[in-house]
Task: inverse folding
């Protein structure tokens, strides 16, 4: 029997012992992580002061602590109320390879009137809010969501999966609008401010057969590749399949997140 064969037998024996320990301690599923993202910039839109201009957009109030939004109302060219909208830009981070977004929500706190409204979403190229970016998002959104601003002090709306299905990262603009002329105030500072929450399922280390579990078959697959280099079984990234890879695999033994 060669030295290599003896070493492989010893490795398998040690692995068997460690595997028994891992199986005894496994049995609970890890939870996906919730990632909360606050805006990098925000703004409240306002129309110009000219006659009959109450439904347009001319100026921006940047990063206010509270944003009052409402629809415009005019009759015979005379403005009853002006239209104000809220806009935010969020920097959506790049996820680790193999991770995925399960759900994405837009959430925060509010006060004042309630009723129907809309969200407009668009991927933009800059972290800075501009009137042009707001108009583009309003006129050509990547997604829209019809919402009901309820009388509750908090709100939470699901962002369409089309906005995160590919794992896209970058700058996401969200515009909030209200369909009636009665004002509603959106908290825009602190932990109750308008934010994006992402439920992220992380990469399942060691699930080589992709069945949602790190199990005996995965351990045997790694042991079979022990001593080789440059493969998917290299969990610690040192280009060698060795003891550290085996320990990482056994540490992940059980259900995937």
Result:
């Amino acid at each position: 029997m060669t030295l290599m064969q003896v070493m492989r037998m010893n490795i398998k024996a040690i692995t068997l012992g460690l595997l028994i320990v891992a199986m005894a301690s496994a049995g609970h599923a890890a939870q996906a992580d919730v990632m909360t993202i606050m805006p990098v910039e925000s703004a409240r839109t306002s129309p110009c002061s000219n006659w009959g201009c109450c439904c347009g957009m001319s100026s921006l109030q940047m990063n206010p602590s509270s944003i009052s939004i409402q629809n415009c109302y005019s009759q015979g060219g005379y403005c009853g109320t002006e239209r104000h909208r809220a806009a935010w830009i969020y920097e959506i981070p790049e996820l680790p390879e193999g991770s995925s977004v399960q759900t994405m929500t837009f959430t925060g706190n509010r006060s004042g009137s309630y009723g129907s409204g809309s969200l407009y979403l668009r991927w933009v190229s800059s972290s800075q809010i501009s009137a042009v970016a707001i108009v583009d998002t309003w006129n050509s959104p990547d997604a829209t969501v019809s919402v009901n601003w309820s009388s509750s002090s908090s709100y939470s709306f699901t962002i369409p999966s089309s906005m995160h299905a590919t794992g896209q990262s970058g700058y996401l603009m969200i515009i909030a609008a209200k369909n009636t002329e009665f004002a509603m105030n959106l908290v825009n500072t602190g932990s109750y401010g308008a934010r994006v929450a992402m439920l992220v399922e992380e990469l399942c280390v060691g699930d080589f057969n992709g069945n949602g579990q790190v199990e005996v078959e995965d351990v045997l697959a790694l042991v079979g590749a022990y001593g080789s280099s440059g493969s998917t079984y290299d969990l610690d990234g040192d280009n060698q399949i060795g003891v550290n890879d085996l320990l990482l695999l056994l540490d992940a033994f059980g259900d995937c997140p």
Summary: The helical segments are 3-25, 131-139, 216-224, 243-251. Confidence is low (pLDDT under 50) at residues 17-31.
